[in-house]
């Protein structure tokens, strides 16, 4: 069973259970980019208003399964940095 987030309800964070078989734990994280603070894991709604990055990354301990989001003209190197940041935090 998976816990599925209803993104249309953001920022209310309503979850439902999906009947999908899984052999490992899958986790997700939202990452923002704030001036002066750098990457922020699970930023608040207020922080997201000032973020130049809104990225959702989901995966297991072995692999990244999904990367979704948008940003304000960030260079490719910085987008690779955020993936490295998430994998090591």
Task: Walk me through what this model shows.
The chain has 89 residues and is of the alpha+beta class. The chain has a domain at 27-87. Helices cover 18% and strands 39% of the residues. The protein has 2 helices and 6 strands, in the order ββββαββα. It has helices spanning 45-48, 76-87; strands at 2-5, 15-18, 27-34, 38-41, 53-59, 64-71. Strands 4-3-5-6 form a 4-stranded antiparallel sheet, covered by helices on one side. A two-stranded antiparallel sheet has the order 1-2. The chain is globular and about 40 Å long.
The total count of helices amounts to: 2
Strand order of the largest sheet: 4-3-5-6
Structural class: alpha+beta
β-strand percent reads 35-45%
Tell how many strands the DSSP assignment holds.
6
Rounded mean pLDDT is 79
- Our Rg estimate from Cα atoms comes to 14 Å
Index terms:
89 residues; alpha+beta; four-stranded antiparallel β-sheet; two-stranded antiparallel sheet; 2 helices; 6 strands; 18% helix; globular; disordered N terminus
List the helices and strands and how they pair.
Elements: E1 2-5, E2 15-18, E3 27-34, E4 38-41, H1 45-48, E5 53-59, E6 64-71, H2 76-87
Antiparallel strand pairs: 1-2, 3-4, 3-5, 5-6
Short structural description:
The chain is α+β, with helices and mostly antiparallel strands. The chain has helices at residues 45-48, 76-87, and strands at residues 2-5, 15-18, 27-34, 38-41, 53-59, 64-71.
């Amino acid at each position: 069973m998976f816990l599925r987030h209803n993104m249309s309800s953001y920022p209310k964070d309503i979850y439902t259970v999906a009947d999908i078989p899984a052999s490992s734990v899958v986790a997700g994280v939202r990452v923002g980019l704030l001036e002066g603070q750098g990457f922020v894991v699970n930023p608040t709604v207020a922080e997201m208003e000032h973020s130049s990055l809104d990225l959702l990354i989901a995966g297991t301990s072995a692999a990244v399964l999904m990367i979704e989001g948008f940003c304000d003209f960030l260079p490719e190197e910085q987008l690779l940095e955020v993936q490295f940041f998430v994998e090591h935090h």
